[in-house]
Amino acid sequence: MRHEGFARNFSSTLTELRTRGHDVTVLLDRQPTASSSGEPSPLEEILERHAGIDVRVRSTHPRRARFARGVRLWLDYLHYLQPGLEEARTARERVRRGLPRAVAALSDLPGARHALRLLLRRLERALPARSATHALRAVGPDVLLVTPLVDLGGEQVDLVRAARAIGVPSVLAVASWDNLTSKGTLHEVPDRVLVWNRRQRSELADLHGVDPQRVRVTGAAAYDHWFTMTAQATRPELCAEVALDPDRPYILYAGSSPFIAPDEGAFVRRWLDGLRAHPSLADTQILIRPHPLNPIDVSAPGVATHPPGGANPVVSTRRQQYFDALHHSTAVVGVNTSALLEAALIGRPVLVIPAPQYSATQQGLVHFRQMMHDAAGALSLARTTSDHLSDVAATLGPHPPQPPTRAFVEAVVRPGGEHRSAAAAIVGALEEIVR
């Protein structure tokens, strides 16, 4: 794992490995840091529950690592200039900002791209992987499972190359819904790639040139826990905690990251003004859950913000609090956040706000457009703000629309059926490749 935060996405996988009796070493690129809240990290929670997991931090040569990252970042930019990614303008600009201006300008010349790509690829493949080889030999694994691998600059590429050099099979588990369309490119393709769904399998072939024979569809391990969770707080208990009326429904507004929705507080205030001006929504209760890095400061009757500073639901107590808020909501509203997926998983209507000021991080991101296309009707993006408000009113009416939860689940997070966990499929794939 690049860092311990990825344990959030693969807690069920680590649990499944230990349940089946496998020894596990977690190899991190960064030293774990103490939580400012005093709560355990996702990895610490797993270590508390399961013995037999060893955690190590691999060392790298800083100067060589910076040079390798620069070469791969340049290749990542050239990746976003290829056919098929013309509309990925937001991701492309994010990569461009990490490059020297002259390098980006040279890459923008269509006639130079092919030669640059060949030259940089030859240079990149010649980079040494000695520290990664040493780290893997010290562990002596039967198989390497790596994530996310497609981070910009490709800092884990040397691990895959080292594994191949010493005869250890390598497997990439795609960590998130946007990894194959908004991150970097695959500078080295592992022996197997495990993806969420058929859409990601197509992305690997079309955008990264990966042979479909190397790919296995396992589902999304990041959402395994959603299929076993139940609400712990009752609706009156939750509403008492956040100071809302338990006898009236509430809409949950799920905040987005500052990259997706800068100045989201002002956006939410305008959205609330539109609600209050609508004849059917004037007294609608709203529960706002801000992103922890993107505060939303709103004070109005019938509006609560909880937790006030936002919270990342990565450990069990925070995750339960988050689940309860979604469970007791009537509908969930947002701009572009994984909370929209999570709300759809538990059958809540999801209403995406059309936001022209955020068009670059809605329609400008490939994974957002694909999510809306593949959502099987579970997510609704209105054409106009007026249409969106009408959709909100419909969810509060006597005959609210019922989202097709099962179709969404099977299309996006559990293509093998909602009763088979992604962790079981991932570990099965690891056992298969070792055999």
List keywords for this structure.
single chain, 435 residues, alpha/beta, six-stranded parallel beta sheet, four-stranded parallel beta sheet, 18 helices
Biggest sheet layout: 6 strands, parallel
Strand arrangement, largest sheet?
9-8-7-10-11-12
| Residue share in β-strands | 5-15%
Number of strands: 12
Number of helical stretches of at least 4 residues: 18
Structural class: alpha/beta
Quote the average pLDDT: 91
Please give the radius of gyration in angstroms: 23 Å
End-to-end Cα distance, whole Å, is 24 Å
* Uncertain regions spanning at least 5 consecutive residues: none
> Which geometry do the CA atoms define?
globular
Q: Could you estimate the helical fraction of the residues in percent?
A: 40-55%
In N-to-C order, the SSE pattern is: HEHEHHHHHEHEHEHEHEHEEHEHEHEHHH
Compact description:
With 435 residues, the protein is of the alpha/beta class. It has helices at 11-19, 42-49, 62-79, 89-96, 101-107, 110-125, 130-139, 157-165, 179-182, 198-208, 235-242, 264-277, 316-327, 338-345, 366-374, 385-395, 405-412, 422-434, and strands at residues 24-28, 53-57, 144-146, 170-173, 192-195, 215-217, 250-254, 285-289, 303-305, 331-334, 350-352, 379-381. It contains 18 helices and twelve strands.
